[in-house]
Amino acid sequence: MIWVAWRQQRTESIVLASVLVLLAVLLVPTGLEMASAYHSDGLAACIGATAPPACGNAIQSFTSSFAIFDGLMGWLTLVPGLVGVLLAAPFVLQIESGGYRLDWTQSITRRRWIAGKLGLAVAAALLFALVFVELVTWWRTPYEHLYGRMQTTVFDSEGVVVFGYTLFALGLALVLGVLWRRAVASLVVAFIGYFVVRVFVDTWLRQRLTTPAQRTWRPSAGGGITLNRDWVISEYPTDRAGHRIPVHIVSSCIGVPGGKACRAIRVGGGWVHDVYEPASRFWHMQAVELVLYAGVALLLIAFAAWWTNARAA
After folding, report:
1. Helices (H), 140-259
2. H or E segment at 271?
3. Which residue of 117, 183, 230, 251 has the lowest C-beta tally within 10 Å?
4. Pair 138, 164: CB distance under 8 Å
């Protein structure tokens, strides 16, 4: 059964292997060049609060040299979705064509057929995610040393969340496929659904999955230096007590000598309030999001298996 499932999914497996090879061809040369520049420019000494003044120009030069590649990395967040949808294709195609009926007449039970097909797809998804994460994490190592990994484009391609993304796309494509029985349409809609869910989680839900930290600090005192690796959700001017000062009032008081409100801002203002997720919460946030995506994915895959076993004829 495993051999048959592999034969039916070998085209998709070859495509996935080709995707990994293409990523390696693109990332390995630039990754080596970036690591060499990081060490030759002595950027390791620029990490921390005691970095010398010249580090600003060195970091800016390094960042600008690889800005194009770093910008393209943000698009890699779509890859797990494409992979999950692609791995669902063999199962959905057999449901659409009715080819599963022939398999079930070859002394293979429904449950064994379903377990073999879906088990292989899940294993392939997890293997791809592992290789993908290792490759991207290695490539971004110099950037992580300088900027951390709480930015959305980095967070989405490292750690363990990629496993959840891939399984979620797989489960969504399987459910739509077994219900709709239109392979191409199901896979396209599944990818669109994956994209919509990812945007919703990234832009709205993620900051609500855990309670963010808050801090009021004075920029002139250097209090914000500890936030350069954190994920700042919102930031606004306040007084010493943390009371918010509308931006338009602050702007209108710049260079204005008089006015009661402006005098109060100059006396008690100059503070900033940040709502943020500390860099130390990276793995905690990764675990929470993995549970969310993987939990939904397992429910979707289980439903697709149950529906096929109970309703397919």
Report:
1. 141-147, 152-155, 161-180, 183-200, 206-209, 247-252
2. strand 271-277
3. 251
4. no
Q: Can you give the pTM of this predicted structure? A: 0.89
Number of H helices, E strands in the chain: 14, 3
Are 77 and 156 in contact by the 8 Å Cβ rule? The answer is yes
Of the candidates 214, 165, 156, the one whose C-alpha atom is nearest the C-alpha of residue 190 is 165
Sequence-distant (6+) residues with CB within 8 A of 297 are: 164, 167, 168, 170, 171, 172
Reported as a single tens digit per residue, the pLDDT across 188-224 is: 999 999 999 999 999 999 999 999 999 888 776 554 4
CA–CA gap between residue 129 and residue 251 (Å, rounded): 48
Q: How far is CA 198 from CA 7, 257, 293, 295, 305, in A?
A: 32, 49, 10, 15, 24
Residue count of the chain, please give it.
313
Tokens of 259: 């006015």
Q: How many other C-beta atoms can be found within 10 angstroms of the C-beta atom of residue 65?
A: 14
Helix then strand then coil, in percent of the chain rounded to 5, is 75, 5, 20
CA distance 127 to 144: 24
For tokens 């390791």, the residue is 44
The contacts of residue 50 (CB under 8 Å, 6+ apart) are: none
Sole residue written with tokens 């900033």: 272
| β-bridge partners, 216 | 273
Tokens in use for 195?
A: 């994209």
Q: With contact defined as beta carbons under 8 Å apart, do 181 and 95 qualify? A: yes
The whole-number average pLDDT for the span 73-90 is 92
pLDDT tens digit sequence for 93-136 = 999 988 777 777 777 788 888 998 999 999 999 999 999 999 99
Q: Which residue has the tokens 């891939």?
A: 166
